[in-house]
Amino acid sequence: MCGIVGYLGSRSAAPVLINGLKRLEYRGYDSAGIALHHQGINVIKASGRLTALAGLVSEQQPQGTVGIGHTRWATHGRPSDENSHPHSDCTGSFAVVHNGIIENYRELTAQLEAGGHIFHSETDTEVVAHLLDEL
Q1: Can you say whether the dihedral through the CA atoms of 59, 75, 86, 121 is positive or negative?
Q2: What is the pTM of this model?
Q3: Extended beta strands in 3-133, E state
Q4: 3, β-bridge pairs
Q5: For the stretch 72-85, what's the b/e string if a residue is b when 16 or more beta carbons lie within 10 angstroms of its beta carbon?
Q6: Which pLDDT tens digit goes with each residue over 78-128?
Q7: Among 31, 32, 69, 106, which one has the highest count of C-beta atoms within 10 angstroms of its own C-beta?
Q8: Confidence of residue 26 (pLDDT cuts 50, 70, 90)
Q9: What distance, in Å, lies between the first and last C-alpha atoms of the chain?
Q10: Bridge partners (DSSP) listed for residue 70
């Protein structure tokens, strides 16, 4: 299981997302990440417990009042920074998080790679970002 949280408002999104992920941490222990929108998309991810991500967020002080967060329990790909969610498209224009399994992700990945897409993880979820970019 994984946990997803989102925020859109007037406050800084990062603390709200971290607090939401803390409440959902029981749903995923191997990695976590957030994506914030502020003059582009800023993705911060960390393997391990949520405290690793919280430390990075505290150091970086990312800006933005819109964001998504994810705490992961791996189904595809080993626990790692690269396999943590959120995942972005090739241009970094947007980020996605996902709970579930995409059964045909290998076939979709092969098609997208043949079209020039570059993947950075072993997860099935990254294919969603690249499919949206393709569309």
Answers
A1: positive
A2: 0.92
A3: 3-8, 31-37, 41-47, 66-72, 87-88, 95-96
A4: 71
A5: bebebbeebbbbbb
A6: 889 999 999 999 999 999 999 889 999 999 999 999 999 999 999 999 999
A7: 32
A8: confident
A9: 29
A10: 4, 33
